[in-house]
Fold each of these.
Amino acid sequence: MNQIRTILLWATLGALQTVHAQTAPKKITFTGAARSYFFGDKWDQETTVPDTVTIPRLHSGHVLADLGMHIRPNPNMEIAGMVRVRNDYGGFWGSGVSFDVRQLMVKGVIGGVVRYQLGDINYRMTKFTMWNPDQELMATAPTIFRQQFDVLNYDHFYDQENSWRQQGGAAEWGLVFNRWIKELQFHAVATRNKASNNSNVNDRLFAGGNVQLVQSKWLQLGVNYVNLFDVSGTSRNQTLFHNPVLTGTADFNWTHPKFTFHSDVEWGNSKTTLKNDSEAPGKEGNFVEANASITQPAKGWKLFGSVSKVSVGFNSPGAQTKRIDFSGQPEAFQRVGNEQSLRPYSVLDIMRESAFYNLQLQPYLMEFAPKYDNITPYGAATPNRQGFAIGAAWHNASKTFHAQLQQTMSQETKGEGTLEAREFQRTEANIQYESNPAKTDIRKWAIQANWRMDQTNRSGTEYYRGVDLATSVGSLGMEFEIFKKLDVLVGWQYIAYQGFDFTAVRNDYAEIFNFIEYDVDGKEIITAGGLRYRFGERAFLSAQVNLFDIQDQKQAANDYKVRQLMILYQINF
Amino acid sequence: MKKLQAIVLLACCAGFVGCSVDDEFEGPSLNDIYGSFSVMQPLDISNRQVDFSQNETTYLTAVFSKNIAWKVQVKGLNSGGIKEISGFSNYLDVDNTLWNGTVSRLPMMRAELCAVELTFENEPDTLRDTLEVTAGRVNQGLLLSDFENGFPDDWVPFVQSGGNMTFIVQTGANAAQGNKYYDMGGNVDWDWLKGMFDIPASAYGSETFALSSNPGAVYFNTMLYKPTDISNALVLFQFREDDNQDGVYNSTNEDMFSIEVSPDEDGWSLLSVKYEDLVTLVNGAASVDIGNGIREPHKLMQVSVLFLANPNSGYTQSYLDYMIFTENSPLIP
């Protein structure tokens, strides 16, 4: 041990402190954002009997300011607070004003060794332990639609690299070695997921830790543990949820003069129990995922592939909780027609409706929309999936042009309602070109195109239908700088779904007890055009018109169009 | 480039090799939900002449095209006793239809012909068959009387001199067990008590009943009948203990525990009460214990049955059959 000289050090922290010492940071700094957001919507639906009930025009919007303050009473401590002042358009004299605390956090360093953070924290670990997978249809959205997604993601704290906003504490520290092992990093987190109501709801905590061994730049090994659990005695309810997930990770890198090779693997298991509930089934599951890629930097090529298997019993609330709660209802034009029936959700709602979005880790699988994503509704940790993916990517020497093609083939690990497993296929292609941002003397322009085709199949019998569900998602986006900092934005997104599947109905223990026939045949198209003026890197004003058209071949009464005017002014400081 | 191809190939192979599907499935069977129903193997009975008194059993067999909720009803054509067995499966066999002679609805099975009927949820099919019970079950326990041999000689009856007083052993197919039962009925408009009888332990050859000393293990069971349109009957069972074991019950310092019931369902019903759940009653209300307050079934020296009704309520009637003490579990008729 004497030969291994250990130094307690958190490398990043050390570097940070050095910088602090040299630059003498201000004791108080202000950050924040301001936004003005306005929608003018027009409802348009052809009906055999004139609709005399639905109000065809809706105007909504707000202006808000997020005012943040960072106080550094000493070099090893920082207090951050942010308040949100929001006023809905039309809310004069304070009637529509809300005042919320958006963030309150303390962070610092103990003894120059342990970095900690308390309060509102954003945290993520691995894709199977704690990860906030993107919402449906966002990845392929052109810039003009991303503006609305970005607003939602900012409001729900999703904008920080797939992390979940939690309230609690986190700490990290490290050990640096001078032989054999480069570094040993320790991370720990504990958050309060749900508060007791002092009656029948227990306090629910999410806690975990990670130990990362950095052997060298070639090899890293890690162990991850997270647990969502109820705390006994915090209510009269004796039933206690308990869901530990334990995983291991390994990263390999290898460099050749012409190629670089990267591979990572993660494997682990979960166990879900409800203590003191004799009817609750015990549930256990496991998974393994391996990714590999080989890159030829000089020529811009990259080939990649992955294999994975996630068993049906794998339950990881930190990684499987969805952003979108599909059991919600849209707020705009919520009830339509003379009967004022509930309007089904659409991609337009997903892009702008805050009410659909979830902030809390859920103990079991949430509802999902098979027509948008039937293959990976819960991200990489989607249970009951096994298969592989291969793909290729290329970019030119100046990295202004990127192209990627990927094929995924997978199937269920366990059939639902039958021994036969569903089979899934996904083909994705995307290209994008962006004028060289480093060259300021040329006008900015960019174009991107994406295409995704999903297919789900399972044969049927003479008694029940086979599964045959296809989803196609296409998008095209363009940006042209017509005058200095003034861009024209154009976007088109096309979603078509057709076919049949059975959706599982689950009980309180997430066990399937019935199936519902899911029969869809429709398409949703958004065409948009607008202008954006960039005041700088962190501020813009955008005005756009979206033409949304949904056609439901199964139920013509669900056909409608929405003309949407959106004006967004956004500034971050 | 060859290395690259090999890596891709290996990855693909790993993917294919790893793709095995469980040999069980999640959720209910789609075939059960959507499949058509048919009987693949007809209904059959393993033992068509079954003697339950010899611990014989019988069961049904059949095979269906899908899992389905089914119900078997065996009805005694003489007694009217019914045994029901239900389940959810695509077959009937010894595991899910074994019958040892118990009933779901009284009367108890006796030597008789039984109609067997198999029905299915949401399906019109009904399968029928018959079997013969050559002898009913013999239950373990201390049988006070099943009245098959008339009113026991050593019991001490008392009957008021009211109108239409019965208090006799009747013979008929509608006995809860066997062919006889005790009919208590009459109209006494000046007193709650219509009639009663005492059952001394001496009638069974000892000063106290031969019961376990564990009150949690001893059950008193009997069957009561409520005629249609008569709802004023009360039956009070009293259990006198010889706390000091001097051979005499002293009402001032020895326990008398009771249970009072009012039959509320037409027809026969089973009364089973755990000895430790007996209470001291005064005029039908719980009261302080008279003696040592300890439930001691091994010191029980007399059981009394009192037939009561509000004197202003007119004629009343109830039947009684098959009084038996069992140990470790209530009577399963």
Amino acid sequence: MTATSPLYTLKSLSKRYTRGKETVTIFDALDMTIPAGDFIAIMGPSGSGKTTLLNLLGGIDRPSSGEVHFEGARIDTLSQGRLARWRAAHAGFIFQFYNLMPTLTAAQNVELPLLLTRLSGSARKQRVKTALEIVGMGDRARHRPGQLSGGQQQRVAIARAIVADPKVLLADEPTGDLDRTTADEILQTLQLLNAEMGKTIIMVTHDPAAASFAERELHLNKGRFEERGKA
Amino acid sequence: MNDATLIRKNLFRKRLRAILLVVSILIAFLIYGVLAAMQNAFSMGTVGAAQERLVTVNRINFTVALPYAYWDRVRQVDGVDIVAPASWFGGYFQEPQNFVQSFAVDPESYIAAYPELVFEADERANFLEGRTCAAVGRALANQYEWTVGERIPLMSNIWQRQDGTQAWELDICAIFDDADGTYPTNYLMLHYEYFNEGLSFGRDSFHWMTVVTEDASRNDQVSQAIDALFANSPAETSTTTEAAFNEAFMEQFGNIGLILTWVIGAAFATILMIVGTTMVMAVNERTREIAVLKTLGFTAPRIFRMVLGEALLLSFIGGLIGLGLAAGAATLASGAMAGVLPPFGLSLTNTLTAVAFMLALGLLTGVLPAWKAMQVRIADALGKI
């Protein structure tokens, strides 16, 4: 697959929720292609469906209709078990509130996705070490999340997202809980992962400054995408 | 790190809560272990009972004596092989709290009726011949560190001697063992003749007879014949198998089996609710973390196994510590009650039953939270990823 071949293809994707007797359409008949190696910022007003779209791309929600293809294979029809395995193999997730396990050290948190692989204990340790060094947290491996700052926790979360070497990183407001300086450091790390390691990054944000770190910005509004030039 | 690490870390994330749960489970298994060990002690007499042995007592109850003449009359009953009369002596050594389970017996017939008692040949001969001789069971001898050749004063709260004293001087002539470990050796036998002749009251009577039949198949016929012999007399008899007699004797202390069932049932029902509710709460608190694990690719069955593993680990930690403490407590209690009960402790069956309880407790308290954890929907739990 070349850098511009599609990683994701969304075909006529719709998502509707039922609230009581009312049916709410988040987006309808959405078509979209995301090439491998892209770094996209998805923006839009609250309730526009940014997070829902990310959930669909990450295989943790299913569309009401339409198709989600990843590397040419449809993923929205996979069983729960197959979807879990697909996520473990292909997607890394970065959360706004880091979502690290409080009882585990940084290294153990990063090791979690590797428990789903057949790697040996020593190979896992080596990968964890490398991932933590990439995000500049090599010296905090034995610290628990409670002993780390917000920015450090997000770095550990990024290390956890990349340790299994997924093709795509899905980030939902990754800097939403951080101060500007720390947020910029985190976004530079994501840029580095995109540029140096070829990771496709899809980032949901409402922050134009954060979006400016992406290669392109997609604005989701009233169920339609609008691509805008970078600020 | 592996799944076991996650299970352990999740279980002890709130240390105080985990410790309190372990303690509550521990107490349940401690109660189970101690009561089960005591039940073993109470059932030892039944286990060691021989099929062809009957016991004849006064129909009122076994504390009411039977006339001495009954011994000879019962020997005449068709189908009877041996008749061994005995009287309850009770007694204590030095201090009233040093209770010594002791019987006045006709040594020859008693030893013949109980072939499972093993004597050294010379000690056996000495015991049979010496009027003031006593034969002491190994467990009792060990308890008071008695040896053959020693003279001991055995005190009685019941039986007064003709000289007005209550001290009965006895020579320890034999220490007996049990052939196969099923019959208790925590008692002492003294000569009925010595006892009877020394009494200031209640002479020429005894409390029960052990009747050995020629064949166990004749037990019913023999017991009916014995009781018919003394029907409508001032001292009517009741003859049962030795096992039934021992069981009835132990039931004086209460129906240990029933007590065990109720206490264990109540303890486990309580534990089940406490641990089950706490496990559900613990998993509810971790809904977000479970959703994160699922997001990372942990499958629902794997999450189920991990939560169930926590409940099982909790159950086994508490259960095994409780059982260990119960074994220790039973050993201590057995030593302290050596004069009253045969040596007792936890049997293999008790241990395996306890392990089955631990497994059941873990499964029952873990299934619901594990199921709930498995059902967690990532999008709902995280709100947003």
